Amino acid sequence: MPQSQISQSSNLVKRKANVIDSDSDFEIENKSSKNNQNKIEIEQKQLKVQFKNQNQEILENDEKSGNMDKFEKMEIEELNSFKIQKKPSLGNSGLKKQSSLTQSYFSDKKSQNQTPAGKSSSFNNNNNKNNYYNTSNNKKNTDSKRPPSFSDIDVVNMDGENQKKNLEADLSELEEVTPYWATKEKCKDKNGRRPGDPEYDPTTLYVPPAEFKKLTNAKKQYWKIKSENFDKIIFFKLGKFYELFYEDALITNVHLDLNWMGRKMHTGFPEKCLQKYGTLLVEMGYKIAVVEQMETPKQMEERAKNQNIKSSEKVVNREICQVMTKGTFQSEEDLTYQPRYLMAIRIQGNNFGICIVEATTYLVTLGFLEDNDTFSLFKTLMYQVKPQEVLIDPSNCPADVLKILKSGFVKPVISFQNNQKRVWEAGFAYNHLDKVHGEVENGKWPKNLKYFYQNEVSRDLVFQTLGGCFEYYDQLLLLENVISTARYQIYDPKKGVQNTMILDSQCLQHLEILEASINLNNPIEGSLLNLVDQTVSYFGKRMIKNWLCAPLLDINRINERLDSIEDINTFPTERDAFRKKLQKLPDLERLCARTFKYAVKNSKIDQAIMFEDISTARLQQFRDLLKNLKIGYQLLEETFIPIKEQFKSNRLKRLLTDLEGGQNNQNQNQNSEKMQEENDGDRIFLEDEEKNFIFAQEENNQHINDQNKIQGLLPNILEYINEFDNYIRWQKDVPHPVQGIIESYDISYQKIQEIEKQFDVYLKQIQKQFGDKNISYDHSKFKYQLEIPEHLVKGNKKPQNFEFTSGKKGMQRFHTPEIKELLEQLDEAEEEQKNQLALFAQFIFKQFQENYKIWDALISILAELDCLCSLSLTSFYAEGTMTRPKIIDPQGKQPFLRIKNARHPCLQRLGVNFIPNDIVLGCDNNQDKSLMLLTGPNMGGKSTALRMSCIIAILAQIGCYVPATECEFTVVDRIFTRIGASDRLVEGKSTFYIEMEEALNSVRYGTQNSLVIMDELGRGTSTYDGVAIAYSILKYMIEILKCRCLFATHYHILLEEFQNSQNVCFYNMACYVKEKEEKVIFLYKLKEGTCQSSFGINVAKVVGLNNFIIQLAKKKAMEFENDLSVQIIRQKQVQYQQLVEALFSNKYQNQQMLQNKEQQSKKDLQNLINIFGGNFQVQPQGSEVII
């Protein structure tokens, strides 16, 4: 091999790490410190000398003999075909040059990773020309470039483009840069449109034909793929490695710290690191297209021969086999329990068609929202689901909805799917569904799909959304997987009202149910979820979150949970043993879902040439999954099942009782369906048709047969697991079908055994030839290398037909023609065996997937027991007194709320010395008084008292003990909150606008059984308008809605207005005022009565405003108070004058009517002016108000 090729393939040679020492690794440590530069250069020079002689011999022998690894040889040729493109000189403008980046990738933010002029660049420091792949995160000093953490990267998606850091790197010494027609400044889409054009397509790139002709074959192949996927990072397979070029390489250089290959804009990583690096980039919001090799070099040669392709035009066939996006890619590297969602939406007026796909399980949720002008239902769904990616038709998405998607509380990646091909059509979805399930008229569709198909109101919009979603998954090469394994469920807020308490997005935020604001790095800390989530399994954590977002309405189910946690607490030993062993189990739900996907034959990925034995790896995962499912079942047998008869909870008994006739597969599946149906009320999403939304009121009797036996829900999975064990036999951790199942596999297996025996015979011949029985085979670099002591083959002792392959100290390794012939036979037999094993594995996975309801039922039972254990620990091991809530059926009763010595559990857990308070509405001394008007000083604890009431109601209705000495109330169907003050600049909404939106929800959707809390309503506008609105809403709550309401205010005028109302009770947060010292001491105690001052100036003093400002504020406060009273009195005088003139005008001819109007008007006016406390007197005749 010529020396030029040796130098260009030096990186490849280093992959043969055992040339000198099989245990050596020749990757130079990535050190950027200038002090180590000389040392590194010396080491690299020594390395070059060390490699020179033996590498020359290796490559020449490999090339002559054909012994070089097929893909390594192919990779050398193809890498060489990426010829260097000299970049223009920068002259004296400095060493630093900002990279040209595609507009669809980056924003205008500047990176902090630039190398100052005059400093050594990263590839210079590492001399990366001889350090091909350094994928480790090496230690660097603070002045050097470091891989950015996730906190450094802005992943907010704006206007459909992934906005990230504007990457900046020192590219001055690279000899190859991005072609001008692919740069940000010059790029065009395939139709010649520039970025900024309204119709610009960021997914395509225009490559000038004249420039395309100049490219090598390998480059043509690359740019053909890249030009159709310009918005994606291309992982381009070359041999055993994924290579990245140009701008894609720059991204990985900065974000993943992958080093440059030589002096080119080129990085890469091994095949086994695909999941690792793919996950990191996807989390940053990038999309990735994985390009695989679809044929071997031998197949390429045969194709070239058959098609008369010239040798200079030969290139291995490659295709995109996988596309990764943030909402659709579930990595094996992802160790979090959080699900990953893609949400597609279609809008018609205020109606939304919703399609949500969970990336791991392919659980497809369909929904139809009849929303309002503020899109409150859509906001609630977004906050509950928090999708990682949202798919929209840009021509169908109103600006207000787009603003919601871009708002800060969700931050999804926004992907666009236009409707030019009319894919957002119901018929498009029907065609796909008919192919998989048969025609809907024949009744073969899943019943949840039929639910929407039979609903004329929602049908078109829902299936239009599903059609757009299907097209997007088709583009990602995932449609076959999704549509073949999808399970469908329904999201219907109207149906959900029958089962669960409604908590909208503002409620979840204001009450800090899922996330709190005390720790931005860990938003869960301080939240209610953090309090109740003591689960130990991933699937348990997902279920407890669903329980918290959807508290129960059915009193029987609530009491069943309360009984269950009391039963579990009675047996702490068994509970702790269950939790300890359950904690060791992996995420069974995701592992099952992944195995279900293996049952679907993916034509692209299955045809790709992979070096990892995928079928063997998958069967090994399957074996471990079955083992863990078996452990999960045995865990129940060892802990709770032996004591189930001592439980008073029928729910617990049913969870731990096997289905009768467990050997009947149909019964098992029906039982599992029933288990799923009963859990529907515990979830955000609802499943199955009408009959499944309502939990039977007579559950205690319904599930007990004539012999007083509980009808169990626990499937007997051991029979299924044993059946799979009968299919597979394991030899040295390698799976094989049991002999006789697949005849062709048995033949291939037998042939391999015979070839291996021939290898053993040949080895004995070599040992005899050299007189050394220690000669053996080595498989470190190539299979069946003869490893011979160096002194036996030194000089002329080496036979001519011995071809050197590698070596280590004192030993050399060789191949011979006999070995190469046997290897060729072995490769053919192993390839056939590999293909047969793939078919066998798919058959096994298909059998597993067909019984998914069995596995789902077991996992659901384990998850529910995990959640019940969590609630048990929360209830009986929390700080302070916890009590069992008593929840009353509201039918025929006035709604009430009685909580004694209540505490806010989240604040108490954070170490706050909480002062208990009583909340009483609609009962006891406050009989018929359903609204509490709460006053008190700023920082006195009003908002905390309001939140505490709602938190306790939520805890009670998920089946948990509450932090109080007594708790009794009628069921709460929905909680409305109006707390805090903030604007939403992205949506263009002011603070006051947000206040009114939040207040509107309670007025529009509230019922008599709702619980409403409002804190300082009206403070976002002028005093007059604020008082007027607060008064009006209070009046509405009292006289029309008549729900339980806690209303905190600083408008003391309202106290006098409602002082005679029979439905209002007055409370205040107590405080103690030291008048001489001008100090206010907060007592944080809720007591009956009113507080006539808010002590705002005292709070300003505590904050530290200087005395001049404080004294001036006091003076002005007195003036404003007096002026306000006079202004209001004068205003009322004018209004009364106009009223009396109208009453006594000639328009009223009937004297009796006139007298009635006069009396009523005087009465109404007197009620209005009483609130100002002045000495008013309405004269019986005349038109003046006398003070």
From TrEMBL:
InterPro entries: DNA_mismatch_repair_MutS-lik_N, DNA_mismatch_repair_MutS/MSH, DNA_mismatch_repair_MutS_C, DNA_mismatch_repair_MutS_clamp, DNA_mismatch_repair_MutS_core, DNA_mismatch_repair_MutS_N, DNA_mismatch_repair_MutS_sf, MutS. Residues 1-12, 90-118 have a biased composition (Polar residues). Keywords: ATP-binding, DNA damage, DNA repair, DNA-binding, Hydrolase, Nucleotide-binding. Residues 1010-1026 form the DNA mismatch repair proteins mutS family domain. Pfam families: MutS_I (PF01624), MutS_III (PF05192), MutS_IV (PF05190), MutS_V (PF00488). GO terms for biological process: mismatch repair. It comes from the Eukaryota. Residues 119-139 have a biased composition (Low complexity). GO terms for molecular function: ATP binding; ATP-dependent DNA damage sensor activity; hydrolase activity; mismatched DNA binding. One of its GO terms (cellular component) is MutSalpha complex. Residues 1-39, 83-156, 658-679 are annotated as: Disordered. Belongs to the DNA mismatch repair MutS family. Component of the post-replicative DNA mismatch repair system (MMR). This is DNA mismatch repair protein. It comes from Pseudocohnilembus persalinus (Ciliate). The lineage of its organism: Eukaryota, Sar, Alveolata, Ciliophora, Intramacronucleata.
